[in-house]
Each structure stands twice: as structure tokens, then as C-alpha cells.
Amino acid sequence: MNRIKQAEEALKNAKKKINNRYRLGYHIMAPANWMNDPNGFVQYKGEYHAFYQCHPYDANWGPMHWGHVKSKDLVHWEHLPVALAPGDACDTDGCFSGSAVDNNGELTLIYTGHHYTDKEKDLFYQNQNIAVSTDGISFEKVGENPVIAKPPVDSAHHFRDPKVWRHNDTWYMVLGNSTKDNVGRVILYRSSDLLNWEYIGVLAQSDGSLGYMWECPDFFELDGKYILMISPQGIKSNGDLYNNLFQTGYLVGDYNYETNEFVHGSFTELDNGHDFYAVQTLLDDKGRRIAIGWMDMWESNMPTKADGWCGALTLPREITLGDHNKILMNPVEELILLRDSEHIECTNQSISESYLIETKEDLLEVKAVFDLTNCSAQSVGLKIRGVNQEETVLTYHLDKQQLTLDCSKSGKVEDGVRSTMLETNKELSLRVFIDRSSIEIFANDGQTTMTSRIYPNEDRLGIELFTEKGDVQVKEITYWNLQDIWK
């Protein structure tokens, strides 16, 4: 049996044994077992394709394969066969992360081959490879692999996660890399045919404070500026910043293709929750830049492993550039297709202490708008309540202009709190997506996003709005029951 069929068979058998208690209703997951980074997020022949790192044989990380889903609308996803399995000379021990491009009707995957020289000591080398498909389903690795056999001479062995795009008639590739002195950086290559690559040089690198390795780079133009997205490893936490084990963020600046000069500002985190990593974007045929990330975090507690599966991707988000070169992320407009039934609970109502909306539904979208112009309260917010003690709490502290997400009573007992600055001008608008084991928060039209996995054990009681030490006028509170796309 070939390796793809074997992987498919393993997933089919593992799927029968899954405990579904935390299975998500409207997010991309593997059919069973482990998944991590999104890969090859692309539009091809009118459909959206997302690939992802997966291990078909275990709920823990292992030899990486590429899982595959597609969708016509970014909402309803369909599982396709595993796209890549490791074990060839070019990818002995793993088909690591990468990207996809439509090369004149040929769907081309560009990925990292992983090779252990001593697995016990985690010694390895990495190279870059290509696989092609004309039907968007079955892929063939090209005979020329590896298309980039070695990293630059001044490089450490970390050399992975190619993101490829076309500018004019030339293909470009950014790669995550590290110097021999453990300085994280992104390096750049170019090619006329996707097979023969020329090293151009360093696109950007750490000033010493941004970690030892920059994973999962993505580089693109947005509203006249150039954005480099990276997932640095090894940044030390600093107050409310950089509290996850690894971070994902961006640099904004100006880029010159002729000189390969990228002049940029400082690093900014992209999402301030617990579980957001390895973001990848595509430019779709509507001209939107759309991002999707891994909705988990390395070395965090992952209770679903015991249930026979692990890992999910975030909702797709449209990226725009706001004031002061700040990236805004908002749910793609198609997500309204998930809405099953609408409940308008109140408009222009003053609340003090709390206001409970009872609903047992576990797949919800909530919109809450607080008028802060004459607000006497010290803080306002909303809770997703269980029937007894469980709750996921989102609090806005008016004096500090700080938004806090507390998941410590919903399965993140240790390290359950994340906070971030949010300057509000007269109102706080929250758009919140709750799935069986996740929460995604979009505040004030994407000024802040917070994404976290949660693991409640109790039945849902409802949504509670609350204030502390004063009253607040609620302009609107609406919620929608959402469809389960996997049923």
C-alpha cells in the first residue's frame, strides 16, 4: 500500500474512536489525530484550499504529512485525501510547512523536507521541495527535488517554511532561518521556474530581542506597505506582551525589489490570546488579503489528545491596515453564512452589575456594543457561563484601557489570563465566536483580537453582560446560533 493510502486508512480507523466532546463545529480540524500549522493556503480553480501539518498515526506530533481541505466559501470545508507523505529521499522524516501557488493551472506545493541525523539529540538538516497537481487532489513530488538542497553558508540548520509568491514574471520565496549565532531571520530567494532558485540575501533579522529562530514567514504588499509576518521563537515575556511560549506578529515597512531593502518598524503581536501561531495568508480573487492560523500553542496543555485528536485552525480573517500601520483582523464576511437563528436581546438598555441571556447552545456568535461616553462603571464585559462554576470572562478596564481574557475557569487553570491595551473612543464593540473548545474575540473592528482554546466540562447556561462599580448603557446585544459544518 502506498504511503498516502496508508495514512488515509489510519485516519479512517482513528476517526471511529474519537471522543467528540470538544470537536469543533465550524473550524478546520484533521479527521483524527494531530494537526498543527496551516500550509498552502491558496485559491485554485475558484475554490479555497487549506493544507495543514498532520500526523495521521497519533494524536501527538510525529512525522509530518500534509492534510488537505477545500471550500467554495471559506465556511463549509470538505476533507480531501492526505496530499503529502514523507519517506522519500528529499523528505525522509517529514514534509514540514510550506505554501502553495497556482502555476498556470498546476497547483504547486513548496515545502520543507526534514531529515534527522540523530533523532535522540534532535540533530537534523532541512531542504526545500516541490510537488505538483493538475486536479488539486493528488500530488507528485518532482524529480528535481530538493530544489534548494542547503541553507546559506552563514546559516544554522533551521531552514524551513517556504512562502512563495509571484511578482511580475518572477517567483520569490521567503524562508524562516537562524544564523550560526542563533539570531532569528528571514531570507529571500528568487526563481523563474520554481525549480532553480537563486539566493538573494537577508530580508530582515532580529536586533537581538526577537528570538533565535523566525518560523513561518509570509511577505506581501498591503495598501502600499509591505508586511512581514513571522512566528519568532525565544522572545522573553514583557508585562502583557509575549506571554505565549512562542509568538506570532508582524513588521510593516517599505520594500524595494531592486535592492532587496526592507525598511520596517518594530515587531507587533498579531493576536493577544493564548492560541494563535504560524499564520499564513492568501490574496483572493476579490482582492482581499485573508489570514488563517493554528489555533493552538506548542507545549500547552491539550486535553483533546486523550480524545484521539488534537489541533485546529482559526477562522479565516480579512486583514487590513489601520492607523499607525496597525494590522486589523476581522472575520471574513462569508462567516454570516454560519448563522442559523438570530436573537436580538436588547438595544439601548442600561445595566448595572449583570444581565443574563440564557442559552444552552454551544456554537455561538455574539455581538455586544457598550456605550462608554457617560459610563460610570470601572469595568464592563461579558462572560460565557456554565451552569455552575465554569466561565470564560472578557473584561474591559476603562481606567487602564485594557482588555482581559480569563480562561482559568474554563480549562486553562494555569496561565489562564491574557491582557492587551485597547484604546476605545466612546464605545466598546465586541464580536465573539464561541465553539465547543475555542473562543475568538474581535474588538472594535479588529483593533484587537484574542484567540484561545477552552475546555469546559459543564453545560452552557448562557451569556452574561456585567459591570463593576457602576452602570453602562448597552447599545446592542445580539447572538446567533451557528451551524455545525461537520454534521
The global form is globular
DSSP strand tally: 32
* Major sheet details: 10 strands, antiparallel
Number of separate helices? 1
Low-confidence stretches: none
Estimated structural class: mainly beta
Percent of residues in β-strands: over 45%
Helix fraction by DSSP (H/I, runs of at least 4):
under 10%
What do the pLDDT scores average to? 97
Gyration radius over CA: 22 Å
End-to-end CA span = 30 Å
Report on this model:
The structure is a single chain. The protein is an all-beta fold. The protein has one helix spanning 3-15, and strands spanning 33-44, 47-55, 65-71, 77-84, 95-103, 106-118, 123-133, 140-141, 155-167, 170-179, 184-191, 197-205, 213-222, 225-233, 249-256, 261-264, 268-269, 277-283, 289-294, 309-310, 317-321, 327-331, 339-358, 364-371, 379-386, 391-397, 402-409, 417-421, 427-435, 438-443, 448-453, 460-482. One of its GO terms (biological process) is carbohydrate metabolic process. Enables the bacterium to metabolize sucrose as a sole carbon source. Residues 27-331 form the Glycosyl hydrolase family 32 N-terminal domain. InterPro entries: ConA-like_dom_sf, GH32_Enzymes, Glyco_hydro_32, Glyco_hydro_32_C, Glyco_hydro_32_N, Glyco_hydro_beta-prop_sf, Suc6P_hydrolase.
